[in-house]
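Hey,

Quick one before I head out. I ran the complex with zinc ion overnight. Inputs first:
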Amino acid sequence: MPTRAKKPCAYQGCASLVDGSERYCEKHRKKVQQQVDEHRGSANDRGYTYRWRKYSLWFLRQPENVMCKLQLDGCTKLSECVDHIDPPNGADDPRFWDTDNHQGACIHCNSVKGHRKMEGTPRGGVYL
Ligand SMILES: [Zn+2]
Ligand SMILES: [Zn+2]
C-alpha cells in the first residue's frame, strides 16, 4: 500500500484527518456503515429494490424489450430481466437508472454476460 496524503473525513462537520484511501474517520465509518446497513436489507443489496422490480416489470412489457437483446449463443428467448449494457457500480452509479443503459435479457444470457465480463478483465482478481 503506497502512503497517501491525509484528507478530511467526508462526514459533514467532522474535522478529523483520514488516510487518502478512506472516506471517513474510524468513528464515522462505523456510523455511515450502520446507516447503510439499516437502509438496505439483504434482499435490497446492490440496489435491486422494490422500485427496481417495479421498473423492470414495466420495462419488459415495452414491445422493444420483450425479446432477449443479448442473444448469446443464438438465444431467442423472452426477456426475464433488465440488463445493464454498461454495468453500474451499485445503485448510486448514474448508469444504474439510466434508461439508455437498459436492455431486456433472459436470465441465462444475463449471467453468461456477467461471467464473460469478469473473465475478460485483463488484470482482475488474483492475477494482478
Ligand atoms: Zn469523521
Ligand atoms: Zn438470452
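Residues 121-128 have pLDDT under 50 and may be disordered.

Talk tomorrow,
K.
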